[in-house]
Amino acid sequence: MERPIRIKDIAEAAGVSTGTVDRVIHGRGNVSPAKRAKVLEVMRALDYKPNIIASALAYNKNFRIGVLLPDPEIDPYWQAPYSGVTYALESVRHYGVTVQFYLFDLFKAETFVEQYEKLLADAPDAILFSPLFLKESKALLAKSSALGIPNVMVNTYIENSDSLSYIGPDSYQSGVLAARLLNFGLNNHATVIILNLAKGSTNAQHLLQKEQGFRDYYANFNSGSTTVVKYDFEDFDKEELMEGFMEEIFGKHPDLDGIFVTNSRAFRVVESISGEAAKRLKIVGFDLMKKNLDYLQTGEVDFIINQNSVQQGYWGIMTLFNHFILKQKVEKIQNLPLDIVVLENYSYYLRKEKSFQLAI
Amino acid sequence: MERPIRIKDIAEAAGVSTGTVDRVIHGRGNVSPAKRAKVLEVMRALDYKPNIIASALAYNKNFRIGVLLPDPEIDPYWQAPYSGVTYALESVRHYGVTVQFYLFDLFKAETFVEQYEKLLADAPDAILFSPLFLKESKALLAKSSALGIPNVMVNTYIENSDSLSYIGPDSYQSGVLAARLLNFGLNNHATVIILNLAKGSTNAQHLLQKEQGFRDYYANFNSGSTTVVKYDFEDFDKEELMEGFMEEIFGKHPDLDGIFVTNSRAFRVVESISGEAAKRLKIVGFDLMKKNLDYLQTGEVDFIINQNSVQQGYWGIMTLFNHFILKQKVEKIQNLPLDIVVLENYSYYLRKEKSFQLAI
DNA sequence: AAAGATCTTGTGTTCGCACACAGTTTGTGA
DNA sequence: TCACAAACTGTGTGCGAACACAAGATCTTT
């Protein structure tokens, strides 16, 4: 239970001053090769591990992160990543990390541009954003790259970007998993639909990947005996239109067995059809929205895949922190767990989202 | 982006010295009511939040935790909580937290006693342990209580203890979940068995709770049309005996449909029966042991419920840290998530276990 | 060999807070 | 009114590391 080794201990053991040890540790140069070697040797011999507490206190610099996300007021899904950012901030603000939010309307690409212009004008040290609009996001990536501002992406992935990291689900795999779950208890020769309830302007790439994963599951495991049809519908937020659309679906597929809703809006499907229909159908959707959980409890939704969207925000900030403050290596792709949520275990996931460890 | 408020700022604003502010913050007394009120008012007005970094550095005290767990060499399951403890330690050692391990043989109650005697003799500041032996654990609880040493329990719950916290699964609920999973794809009038592969000496209470949860699921949702039978078998580690036992089971239940293995030893079942039998049967077990995952991939095991046993160790240490160093309130019961693990999502959980956030 | 440039090294201050200690004020009793 | 205790308050030091600065050592150049 001996005391941890300090810089001072190394300095004494190596017969130099703490300043020299410091220069060796940080590679600041201006140290004679002989002393440098001696210090390194002593460091290894004593197994020196820096006290990050003291280090952080002395470091005493600011690190400003610009966060570009959809406004949670407009789409409740985005409350989750937003909360994750604020949780993370709670942990790292003592290290001088600050966050400035720039919220846009996820249904309007032009607000995305407006907000990133503001963000860039404020010249933050790093950017966390969700590339919901493909073209505009590439423009942002190019500009921030030119300005030398590093970034992390959450929720939606863009290939070949020079981002420090992507934090979010593996969309393809989430589609495979959804197919597996939907397929439980369905007989052969079933009919299932893939339902994209999204507006056209959004970056639809991850929806396509989900679809591909879903189809591939059936191709690989179910050898084509199941009919899979895809539909897109934009007016999911208009009650009557949505009901009409679902009626149309039932008309076209009287033998429908299951629905895979590719985003957090499974509850909209349940709201637009009768309770009996919902219970007969197998419905699989994403994310722990309040309404989704309500319908999980009534048995109208069968499975929810939790994409851990709170953690997107949390790990987004933490990744920047780990990289720039703690100088740790970070993974370029951080796929978050895909939790299978049913009636019997949903409460744990609700709780988990609120109990992050504070990284003091 | 203004600088955070420091004690010094409060002192200046309140017209007192930093010492007085310090006394108010820590309730050390010896402060006139007037100044005390003034300081509190200023603190609230400026929304003071202490810099825990600096606080931790200055606090500079040791906190020794005695950890009493089964030897991972004897049963591989226990590698997980053990790792969790060392991960947590990595995070909190800078705060002067140290850990001393006391490992016992989970098949021998007397080694549990030996080790806790040693532990108590070393007079740690707190204890983390797993109450695998009921009687002996109650004795330990009584002694540590008498000595005024606080404790947290992991993995197995003992009711009415004065422990600071329990961290582990809700055994009853894990049984319910297991039944739900096993019941997927099984027809009515199925036969399933509950299989306890454990030695008699161990605290079997949580196995009973799992059994109860399992039975209750069938009672509530399946209205009795499924036959549920329970078996205990102690010699699971002896190859021939185990094979003989499984043959006996098949003899008694030629129409067997599913097996619920109540602990981490589902792989022992698969190893003791033919591959075809394993694929035909639905098998549900616990924990991400290497061999369980192998059989998940071959389709011989159908579902694994992840009890997050690494996190038991992690949160065990963190709970003590939060309570005694950070002076935070902690929950008396912390039930860890019950993750449903299938082929399509197991990799995330393996990864998760290795990516704890360092709580600097 | 002297002057200057360059490289090397040690010392001292700072970060925000905890706590010891000394100093000041107020209260009490004779 | 004085002595002394008790209650209060301010100052100073240390936690371990980061970094600025100055001083010392070595090397060039003429």
Physical arrangement of strands within the biggest beta sheet of chain A: 2-1-3-4-5-11
- Would you tell me the overall average pLDDT of chain A? 89
- CATH H-level name of the largest domain in chain A... which superfamily? Response regulator
Fill in the CATH topology of the largest domain in chain A.
Answer: Rossmann fold
Compressed to H and E, one letter per element, the order of chain A equals HHHHEHEHEHEEHEHEHEHHEHEHEEH
Q: Give unreliable regions of chain A as ranges.
A: 356-360
Q: What is the count of helical runs of chain A? A: 15
Rounded to an integer in angstroms, the radius of gyration calculated over CA atoms of chain A is 25 Å
How helical, in percent, are the residues of chain A?
A: 40-55%
CATH architecture of the largest domain in chain A: 3-Layer(aba) Sandwich
Which oligomeric state applies?
homodimer
The backbone outline of chain A, from C-alpha atoms, is elongated
| Number of spatially distinct domains of chain A | 3
- What's the total number of strands of chain A? 12
Pair of chains with the largest interface and how many residues each contributes:
A-B, 41 and 41 residues
Under CATH at level 1, the class of the largest domain in chain A stands as Alpha Beta
Largest sheet of chain A: 6 strands, parallel
Binned strand content of chain A: 15-25%
Structural class of chain A comes to alpha/beta
Distance between the termini of chain A: 24 Å
